[in-house]
Amino acid sequence: MFGYLRRSFVPAAWLGWQVESNWTDPFVFFVFSILKPIASVLILVFMYRAVSRVGTESPIYAYIYLGNAFYIYVGAIMAGASYSILEDRERYRSLKYIYVAPIYIPAYLFGRAVARFLTGTMAVVVTVVLGVLFLKVPIHLLQVNWPLFFFSLIVGVICLGSIGVILGAFTLTVRAEAWFVGEAAAASLYLFSGAVFPVTLLPEFLQPIGFVLPMTYWLELLRRALLAPGAVGFPTMAPYGNAQLLAILIALTSGFILLALAAFRYFDRKAREKGLIDVQSNF
Amino acid sequence: MKPDTGWRLFLRTIVARAYPRVIGQQRVKKWVFFETVLPLIGTIAYVYVYKAISAPQDYIGFVVISGAMTAFWINIMWAMAAQLYWEKDSGNLALYIIAPNSMMAILLGMAMGGMVAASLRAATVLILGTWMFHVPFAVTSVAELFGVFMLSMVALYGLGMMFASLFLLWGRNAFQMSAVLQEPVYFLSGFYFPVKNFGVAVATVVSVIPLTLGLDAIRQLVFATGSSIGFLSVRLEIELLAVMAVAFVAGAKYWLDRMEKLAVREGALTDRRR
Hints:
Chain A has about 280 residues and is mainly alpha-helical. Chain A is about 75% helix and about 0% strand.
């Protein structure tokens, strides 16, 4: 069983990495990988500077910066699985061959998502280092809670990968407008997960959406792990301790893993019934 | 029947290439919905960032206007510049080159067809954003506002045609280039904050992107506090936009001719692996 999963996951991660990176030389690939996230975070930094009179000491500054930096993973991993279906099926026209190979498709999709985790990591690291060195983001290496950081990061990546499998499986059943699946999910979660502003700013009827999303707790845990206690100043999650937030994140992740397996079984059957595994929609 | 040549062929090509763009979007209504809703969600997120840092109401207006303008930049990068790459991928590019019509006319047709969808998207973001966040407009000159918008569009689509000429040569890197030019251009053009914040030197350099001056002038013309955050005077920005409009369209014609010859010589028009 383990060998079967490994045979599905490892080549998928390697293939994903090749598709992402082999269109150019490593230096250009690195520059392209970091340009977009850096520009994205600089937009927020300049928005903050244009208005704020209190400088970078305000807790909201670090909140916005780190939320945006780690959200790179959400777009990359979650939308990655969906795009990989789109690319394999319509662009490279190889999905039917992947389907007949002796591999486990959800593990394959997870592997493609993990490849994007690697490319996303470059962007996240550069963005955070840039913030600490030049943009006064208050992270002090000796005060960082490293065990909490790495544990939360890994649980979050597994959760994002599971959501990616759900989106990828759904993409199997969508024809002409498949491109929107990953983008729509990433854009919606950016708004509702409190990535760049506290969830409590949303209208009251929309706030519950933020509280059922694992990313809300994941981003809060990462912020708490990286920032000194004084730099985390928002009441949204104040009633919860780190252990409670971690428990919620683990529970939601477990739920999404089960949901991913069920969603794959359902959407895979639908796609086979409708003959959508090798469909062409002039992508 | 005598075949069309000259300006008649040019105009017919524009109509012929704009037609599938306009009709295509009517056929798949979901595209219209998602292409409108996705930029709106991004715009709303930026509005809440300004709310989180207690920004003046005019800044929320800046975001709504910029959210609307993103539709045109996305249209230029994905539906015009990168379009030649898609056409190469689907095997149509060689047909464009073989046909007796001008590549300028084909791109102009794409631009005009795409502008219908982009305008719909922009109008939706503008109307919904204004309604949801009570944006306080104080338009000082409708004529100047119209002039700024039209000149920005001509300059912008001229720039898009210049990009398209590069995409004749590129392969998969064209796709990456389109993706990577989104956020950096939003940043450098001061989409979500006054470009004046860059300081004079940087703001002058980034003014080569038509959206920078276009947005700066629009903000000055539609918001009460606009003149206090403007980089240059509206009149000077209009003059510079006019110069850019002529320069980019002329540059596009020159580069398209040159790149087409280069792409033919290097065999890049039909090679899908590049």
